[in-house]
Structure formats: C-alpha cells, structure tokens
Amino acid sequence: MKDKKIITVIISVIIIVALAWGAVFIFRGAIVTGLAARVLLKAGKPLQFGGYTVLVDKVEGNKLYGIKVSSQSRTLEAKSGDYAYMPEKNAIKFNLIDGVAEEHDPDNPQKFNRLTFKQTIITLRLGSIGN
Prior knowledge:
The chain is of the alpha+beta class. The protein has one domain (2-130). It has helices at residues 2-26, 28-39; strands at 47-49, 52-60, 63-70, 74-86, 91-105, 108-125, 129-130. Strands 6-5-4-3-2-1-7 form a seven-stranded antiparallel beta sheet. It starts with a helix and ends with a strand.
C-alpha cells in the first residue's frame, strides 16, 4: 500500500513538472519580453543599441511612454508605444504611436526633414547593446 502512494506521488510530481515546463514553453515570448523590460528598459536611463540611443520616460510592462530613439542623423519621438522581443532575430521591435521623426543631412546639419506619424515600427538588434 505504501509503495502505491509513493508511485502516485512521483507520478503526480512528474505531471506537475511537465505542465510547468509546458506553460513556460508556451508563454516564453511573454516571459522573455517581460524580463527584457525589467533588465533592459529603465525609465530615464538611456540605453545604447549600436548606433541608436533609446530613452523612455515611463515603462509599464511592455507599454512605453515618452519614447525617444535617436542616432547621429535620425530622431524619433513618440508619446507612447510598446515593444516585443524577437528572439529569432535577437532584436526588440518598437511600435511607436503618435510622434515626430526628424532626419538630418550629415553634410548640412541645419537641413533636415520632419514628419509626424500616427504609428511607426523600428527594430533594433540586441547584439549591439552597450551601457
């Protein structure tokens, strides 16, 4: 009788562990995106992605507010947006909402193009992160 209880407990533990791993596998994108926000995106702290700098005023999960993405010749500012981690590309895709984009002429810094947007997407690779 005692052997049956031990076997039942072992089988139950195996089932629980398998279900837990299955849940992690199914929700891995959301988990990794949530972890990326906690690790990478901090409100008020600029973060380098290669030639781009990202600065966010407020982070709530994967929702972003007061976003500025800039490089030497390009600046995007948006009131809000969100992001998604793309593990297959080792990148973060930013979906920017309600903003302004400026592109400067490197030969003539006083000359630039400016446009407003309702939505734009920019993808930045993580492999080039620097602090």
